[in-house]
Amino acid sequence: MKNYHVVVKPQAERDLKQLKQYLQQNFGNDKAKAKLDSLKKSVLGLGTMPNLGRNATELYSALVDYQYLHLPKNTIFYQVDDKNQLVVIIRVFNNRSDVITHLLAYMEHLKNNFH
Fold first, then answer.
1. What is the pLDDT along the chain (115 residues), one digit of tens a residue?
2. Domain range holding 40?
């Protein structure tokens, strides 16, 4: 079995930092650390099992080439690049938010700033 390199995009890093701040403020440092350690384990686990998640077109047809890993409190959106053996973490959302709306807005933002 090949291991894939896991790359976390800047916006996903910001998502994780915001989650950390929220957890620290509302539940304390110990709970925040435990939750983030668990989330990190899930993210890094995609390096050994990149197709663990589901095809994101199940959620919305425009999410071609994206996968998602639904966890109890968060959803990780990512892409798999088999050729380069990469798992690219795009975003990490709280499941209480409208993840599809946020992801599509982020993709639109990228598209508008790419040109």
1. 579 999 999 999 999 999 999 999 999 999 999 999 999 999 999 999 999 999 999 988 878 899 999 999 999 999 999 999 999 999 999 888 877 777 777 777 767 765 4
2. 5-114
* Domain count of the fold of the chain: 1
Please give, one letter per residue, the 3-state secondary structure of the chain: CCCCEEEECHHHHHHHHHHHHHHHHHHCHHHHHHHHHHHHHHHHHCCCCCCCCEEHHHCCCCCCCCEEEECCCEEEEEEEECCCCEEEEEEEEECCCCHHHHHHHHHHHHHHHHC
CATH of the domain at 108: 3.30.2310.20
Model confidence, pTM = 0.86
